[in-house]
Amino acid sequence: MPARKALKASTPLVLFAAIALAACGGGSDDGGGGGSEGGTAAEATNCTNKILQPDAKKVLVWAWYPNMAKVVDNFNKANTDVQVCWTNAGQGQPQYAKFQTAISAGKGAPDVIMLETEQLVGFEIQDALVDLAPFGADQVKANFSEGAWKDVSQGDAVYAIPVDGGPMAMIYRKDVFDKYGIEKIPTTWDEYAEAAQQMKDAGGPAFGDFGSNVPSAVTALMIQKGAQPFQYDLSDKQNITIKLDDQATKDVLTYWGDLVAKGLIGKEDQFNTDYITGMVGGKYATYVSAAWAPGYLTGQGVGQGKDSGNFAVAPLPQWDPANPVSVNWGGSTFAVTSQTGDKEAAAKVAMELYADDASLEDGWKTQTIFPLNQNVLKSDEFVNAEVEFFDGQTANKDIYVPAENAYAGAVYSPFTVYYYAQLQAQIAKINAGQVTGEQAATDLHAEIVKYAKGQGFNVK
């Protein structure tokens, strides 16, 4: 959802300075959270919302969706045996830092926590999350695509329940394309580069942007080309395969670096005021982004007033159109922490919070989230919705739903935050002309391998 995606612009924190291969952290099965006796989880007090059933079990939830108050009220109205006590402990990294502090202290975590999919493994390896499979997770598996479920699973274990995602596509300005004679919407990355050159030759603005502060998006584009940055299985905690100096990664970094060097695209950091002003003013002809972008941009005033009706969306350009690859940028989940004293009640909340029809409808209609629940993705109302931001285009049916259903999932490392920080640094060097894309990939690989070994991993 939009407010969370802006966090991609912040400087990552190295949460796991010493990854606990010896399984530090984690609570006991008989501990009590949310008011239960003997627990290590934080007490479910000072709730932001109203508890409707005071005598029911209370489950403390940390989450930052902007419509969370309505979602929590929907859950509490529908349940008499369990009530959610919700608090916003920070958006993204600030919340993760608090959670890591609680893990290290062995107390103070919530019962249920909102986590981005790419952050799950880093907490799983510390035994900080509960496997939800014994608590009925498979009962909701059919609600999600294969890729969405893979992102939250490790073998037969399920460590979170998906809520929203970010299948990627290419947003473009129809008015800018028309003004500078771009008649063909790029379907391949070669065509994207050709259109960028055509626009520059015609005196147009930057065709796109390669900001250093969107490492998650860049990683997705690397995967689209065929890269497999990490291979990691939680059942084999000690070993990890790292492959960041492969040809696919080099090709992607070289491609975008060349566009920057030729002055065809910008290199500004995204999600800041200058970038948004540029979006409003037509400084960028395209925005390679995700399904949450319309909501984020609308919330920032893009596409309104004189800008209204100027935006459209097309499928993400491909390297090989005969073998299209769908990738994902962003997405959040609900996970149960190992400090909870009532895993069954917490699992119920993780599986059912933001899963009811009313909450999902509010989420997608307000463009707060792009839901991953198939009950929504297959509904006529959602599929055929005429998206106002895209001048009435049926973007869900034509672009985003097919992209989500084709997404195969990804493998994340136990140190995503550190990896993203190093990738950001390399992109900044590319944009400054200090290194080539190939050299950046080589240097990135060396740095991440060094870091992994320093954390006690055997690197294959």
Q: Which properties best describe this structure?
A:
460 residues, D-Maltodextrin-Binding Protein, domain 2, 3-stranded mixed beta sheet, 13% strand, 7-stranded mixed beta sheet, disordered N terminus
Topology:
Blueprint: H1 2-5, E1 57-62, H2 68-78, E2 82-87, H3 93-105, E3 112-116, H4 120-124, H5 146-150, E4 153-154, E5 157-158, E6 161-173, H6 174-179, H7 189-201, H8 215-225, E7 230-231, E8 239-242, H9 247-261, H10 273-281, E9 286-290, H11 293-299, E10 311-315, E11 328-336, H12 343-352, H13 357-365, H14 374-377, H15 380-383, H16 395-406, H17 416-431, H18 437-454, E12 458-459
Parallel strand pairs: 1-2, 1-3, 8-12
Antiparallel strand pairs: 3-11, 4-5, 6-9, 6-10, 6-11, 7-8
The dominant shape is globular
Q: Biggest sheet, open or closed, and with what strands and sense?
A: 7 strands, mixed
Structural class: alpha/beta
The pLDDT mean sits at 90
Number of helices: 18
SS elements, strand count: 12
Domains (count): 2
CATH topology of the largest domain: D-Maltodextrin-Binding Protein, domain 2
CATH architecture of the largest domain: 3-Layer(aba) Sandwich
Q: What is the share of helical residues?
A: 25-40%
What ranges have pLDDT less than 50 throughout 5 or more consecutive residues?
A: 1-38
In CATH, the homologous superfamily of the largest domain goes by the name: Periplasmic binding protein-like II
User: What is the N-to-C order of secondary-structure elements (H for helix, E for strand)?
Assistant: HEHEHEHHEEEHHHEEHHEHEEHHHHHHHE
Per CATH, the class of the largest domain reads: Alpha Beta
Rg from Cα: 22 Å
